[in-house]
Amino acid sequence: MKKIWLKIKTNWIKIYFVVSIILIIFIYGVIIGQFRVFPFKHILQAEKAAVDLVENFKHYTHIKPEKFLRPIRYEGEGIAINKKDPSDTDLTFIVSMWQDQSGMQLINMSGVVLHSWQVSFNKAFPEADHIKEKITDWDVEPHGAILCSNGDVIFNFEYKGLVKIDQDSNIIWQLPLLTHHSVYQDQDGNLWVPGKEVSRKQNKKFPLLRPPIAEEYIYQISSNGKLIKKISILDIIYNSNEQALLSADSKDSPYKDSIDLMHLNDIELLPQSIADQFPMFETGDIMISLRNVNLIAIIDPRTERIKWQQIGPFVRAHDPDFLPNGQISIFNNNRDNTSDGSIMGGSKIIGIRPGTKEIYQYFTETEESKFFTNILGDHQHLASGNILIVESEGGRIIEVNAEGKVVWSYINRYDQDEVYVIYNAYRVPVDYVNFN
Q1: DSSP-assigned beta bridge partners for residue 391
Q2: β-bridge mates for residue 219, sequence order
Q3: If we measure between CA atoms, which residue out of 174, 189, 77 comes closest to residue 128?
Q4: Which residues pair with 232 in a beta bridge?
Q5: Within 10 Å of residue 341's Cβ, how many Cβ atoms?
Q6: Is the four-CA dihedral 399, 402, 406, 411 of positive or negative sign?
Q7: Residue (of 302, 276, 301, 273) closest to 287 by Cα position
Q8: What digits encode the pLDDT tens for the residues 179-213?
Q9: What are the extents of the domains in the chain?
C-alpha cells in the first residue's frame, strides 16, 4: 500500500494531467450530445455508417442485395391472383429487381414476360463525376420510369442521374444531374423531373437554412436529354410568402438542417384534355408533392407561385394524379414506421376536389384490399374503374375494384422469406407497344 501511495505521490502531475484530460473529454462529450456542436454530425454519421455496415454487410460484399429486399407478407409468386376477363389484354410495365439485377419488365395478365430491360449505373455513368462517392449498381435503384411505344425507357437512377435506353438496354443518352422519384412527359415530349443541387455555402436568400443546403428543383428536360429550365422549390415557397412551411416541424430552433427539407417526390402537369374540369387552374399548371411537409400544391409556371395547396389529411404521400372528373387522386402512405401500418391503419388511395377540399374514397376497404408501404408507392386509375396499386415494400402490385376485391395481383419474390421492392408499375394497352 505504501508503495502505491509513493508512486501516486511521485507521479501526481502525470496522474492529474491524465484525469484532467479524461474529465475534459467527458465534459465536452456531454456538451456535444446536449448542444450538438462539432463534431456531433460527424460522430452521428460515423455511427449511422457503422450500423448500416453491420446490418447490410451481405449487401456491401455483394452476397445478397439486402437494400432491395423486404420481409415477405403474402403468399404466392408472380401472378398470385388473376380474376380478370380474358378480353383484358393490357400489359403491366414494372420497375424492380429480378435475379439481383435492376431493370424493368413488361408482362401480360398471365405474368408472361414479354420484354425486359437491364440497367446499370456504372455502365450509364462510368466516370460519375457529378457525384462524390464511388458506388456500384447495388448502391442505387431505378425510380420513376416511362415506357415509350418504340421500347425506349426513360428513368432515374435515384438521386444519381436521368437515363434513356433503347429496347435492347443500350444507352441513348444520360443526364448527370441528381434527378429522382418521378418522370413525367408532357404533350410536347418534354420531361419534368424532380432534381436536387447541394451547396455548402450559406445562401443569403434563405438565411435560416444551415449549409449544406440541398435545394430542390423542378427540371424541364428536352426529349433528347438537355436541361431546358429549372424552377427552385425554395424560390416558389418564398415567392408565395409561404416561408412558414420551412419551420413546419416540432423543432424549437428556427435554423434548419436542410439536406432533405421538403422531399419533392412527384411532378405532374395539368393536360389540356382535362383542364376544363379544373376551373381554378390552367393547362400546364404544375402539381408537386412535398412529402416532408405533407403538402400537395399547384404551381403557376409563369409566376412560379403557388396557386393552390393542401396539407393533409395524407401523411408522407406520393404520386398525386389529375383525374378526368376534376379530382386529384393521392397515394397516402399514412406512414407510421411500423412493418404493417398497424398504428395508422395502413396506406390509402384518397381523392381531393381542389375547389371544395372534399375527400373521396375510391373503393370499399376490405381485408383483402388492405396494403401498406412506409415509403415509395404508386397507383393508376384504370379505364374499367379499377385501381392499380404498387405496394412497394410489400413487393406486390394489386388491382382493386370498387367493392374492394383484388382481381389481380403480382408478387416479386426473392426467396421464401423476402421480396424485391417494386418501385413503379403501370398499365399500357397492348397496341401501345410496337417493338419486338
Answers
A1: 396
A2: 193, 230
A3: 174
A4: 217
A5: 20
A6: positive
A7: 301
A8: 999 999 999 999 999 999 998 888 887 887 888 88
A9: 1-55
